[in-house]
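Field: sequence (string)
Field: structure_tokens (string)

Example rows 1 and 2, in order.
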Amino acid sequence: MKKNNLKLDPKKLNQAILLIAMGVAIRVMLAGYPNIEPVLVIALMAGLILGGLYAFVVPFLIMVLSDYAIYALHYEGMFGWEIILGISFFTWTGMMFVGFVGTRMKPTFLFRMKGIGVFTGVAVFVTILYDLWTVVGIILLIPWASPGHILVAQIPFTIYHILSTLIFAPLFGTGYVYLKEYGMPILSDWKVEDKNPGNER
């Protein structure tokens, strides 16, 4: 019988911890600016660069830890646990879906011409999908409100979210490429070798 070895890659674990720490810190610092956050881009990068369970664990832990901090610092006692847990289901699963989308891309494409532009375009697309998913959650949690009104009210927040993505996607994408090219020990194995260089998606 084949032995199933489950080994943690120390470098990937360190990279995941770094992404989680950055995501939580920046999201909490920007809590006063609705939908201006780095988590969606970090979730996409976790799927793209780390893959596997990290694509789901990294965004999940960022959301859990930062939501707790934001609620404790800014909104304590304002909402009931039912509303908090209901909204959290949609925001957390939405970010985990973004991480999954990242696993469908090849890390090496970031190093090709227009790679950062493509990464940013994908990030904007999943931003819109994510916001639509959270709107579904709000509609289900507030059944007495008009779905049309909720959709209209969401438009400015989605615009802010897209603008946020347009800032963080090229910033994180370019930062990753720069650090990979010019050195930082923790990133030394982030670039996944393409075993089939002629087979591009």
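Row 2 begins here:
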Amino acid sequence: MIRKNILSIEDDEIQLSKKEKFFDGDRQKIPLDVVDKMVICRESEFIGTKGTAYNKEIYCAKDAHVESNTKIRAIYSESNIIIDEGTELLRWADSEGTLAIYDNCNLGISVSSGERMSIGQNCEFRRMYAPEIYIGQYPIKLLNPKERKDKKVYCLSVQKRIKRNVRYISNEMANEEGVVDYTIVSSENVRVTENIIVQGDIRSHKSVRLFDGAIVVGNIFAEGNVILGINSCVIGNVFSQENVYLESGATIGQSGTISSLVARGNIILEPETFVFGYVSCEKGGKISRSQYIPSPEFHTFLQEKEKVKVLTFRDLDEYEDVLRQGFRHNEIIEEVIIPDGAKKIPKSMFFKCTSLQKIHIPNSIEEIGDFAFMDCEQLKEISLITGQNLKRIGISAFENCRFLETIEIPESVEIIDAAAFSGCANLRNVIFEENSALETVKDHAFQGCVSLIEIKFVNYVEIASDNTFKNCTSLKRIYIPDNQVVKIGA
């Protein structure tokens, strides 16, 4: 409300639900003991003075630094926030950027960050949210949540095949790849022994215990307690009707996704644990203290996550280990270089990457998966002609890539699947190589390509599907080789 009405400020009053007096942090001296008016900082960094009680909300357009032993009702920053040790929040703290919280804080109802969050030791909380939460850690040294965890689990899909009333999950239940490839539903306590990978969910009417290094690819739902041992991991969500306890190195979720940790009772988190997303408990949560982790002498802002504009891969293994959801909805990437040896661009891998402009595809690619580049509205440059092994362009692979002007189809391509280029409003040139192996063009493949004037098939092709060129309002000419077309659809 403050941001929306900030232009209405007049005589140190702002119109919210009613007119509110406030301290202008850019030009007024704020009291050092008790502050009973809102504080608004539009141009300068906010410094919450040590030991002061701020009884109304604080709004910062820039960074904010709350010094130690301060009492705050609520604080919001469009940038980054530091909360020093001993701070008491009555309601909430929210940063659009990063949020660094130090030791011995009471975090009120909610703390949240749009980027990433680190929280020190001996802190109490109710709700937390950030795409990355580093617990019992500090900005100067964030640990790697994937360390000492089997990387292959981040590419496994959740198995729905069910085994019932299993109590102990051990090596004897694993397949040849060392994975227990089913979901467990049990009316008993469930224990997963050390370093076991469960490729499904675990649902228990009692409690669930993961011993050290155990991994669950799906979710955990438990009526009783959930305990995650040292370096264990749940890639999905964790829900408990009672309490949840995370030991050192335990992780919930993974970078690039949003998971939830929810308990009806208490949540106890040891230092050096990780959650990617939401944390919520009805009876209160606490981050414990470790005698092995000293508090830092200097307090700093948490560094923002590096924004990669040109996406490259160290090797083929790194490309093939990409998380199942790929890079969808990434608004930063402008250029992608697919490594040599890759055979497929997976389904939805770059879906709605709204800044993506250029893609390098190697000769080894055999398939562009469904929705791989759908809604990449800035995409202008892609060379498929280098992909001499490419056989299939998937469903909606380039749908709504409205700045794409030219596409060259290699002779190896056999299928242009449904809606592959639908909605490519500026597509003017579709070029097929002379010895094209194209056999099928499916439903809506070029629907809505309003700039397409002509298309020339150079060999046998079946346009049996419906609406292939629907709403191609500029289309004047279609060239078809003699005696080659089997059927033209509706």
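free_text_note (row 2): Helices lie at 316-320.
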